[in-house]
Amino acid sequence: MTLIVLLSKHVILRTSRGCYGIPSKTCVSLQVMTIPFDFIRRRETTGIICCLEGHESTVWGISFNQDGSRLASCSDDKTVRVWAAQDQQFLSWKLVCTLSGFNDRPIYDVSWSKGSINLLATCSGDNTINIFKQDSYSGDQLTCMTQVCKASHDSDVNTIEFNSVEERLVASGSDDGTVKVWMVKEFD
How does strand 137-138 pair with strand 128-134? Predict the structure, then answer.
């Protein structure tokens, strides 16, 4: 068990294994240690580095591509938005593509393939899954995506995920009580 007590500018930490940085004889008798508060604050602090706005309703799913340079988001507004990192530290993002008109109901989940072909899968409340591929790059910017296949369940499709080893293998889960595993066929 770990006990952390905040006292002014220090944290007192007590663990069942002893103390960090204190000789074992002292630790056995004290079972406490003092760590500067600033050290703890730095390690626990998380902060928003940017806020991506554009969807008109609830965002249900998000997924980074394999190298982390693209982020796809899906929403109740029946769109998928693809964002591109504008720097190597991922501090700035820009909307580079909006996929719309492919679904009649909200899009609940989105997943990038894990391999080099950069496929994007979506699933929706209209019982469908859609698979898209990147069209082209203009410099470092993705210009758009093309639908390469569409499939369906018997009810809303709530979740979708690409296999981490076989990049064309994708699984989807639905309100119809099934999980379907699909193989995306070759395309030009």
Answer: unpaired
Average pLDDT value for residue range 100-127: 93
What's the token pair of residue 159?
């979740």
The answer to whether residues 61 and 80 touch, using CB atoms and an 8 Å cutoff, is no
Domain positions in the chain: 3-44, 59-183
How far is residue 41 from each of residues 7, 59, 75, 175, measured CA to CA in Å?
13, 30, 34, 43
At 126-146, the pLDDT tens digits run 999 999 998 765 544 555 788
- What is the reported pTM? 0.71
CATH of 59-183, one of 3.40.50.620, 2.40.160.100, 2.130.10.10, 3.30.1370.20: 2.130.10.10
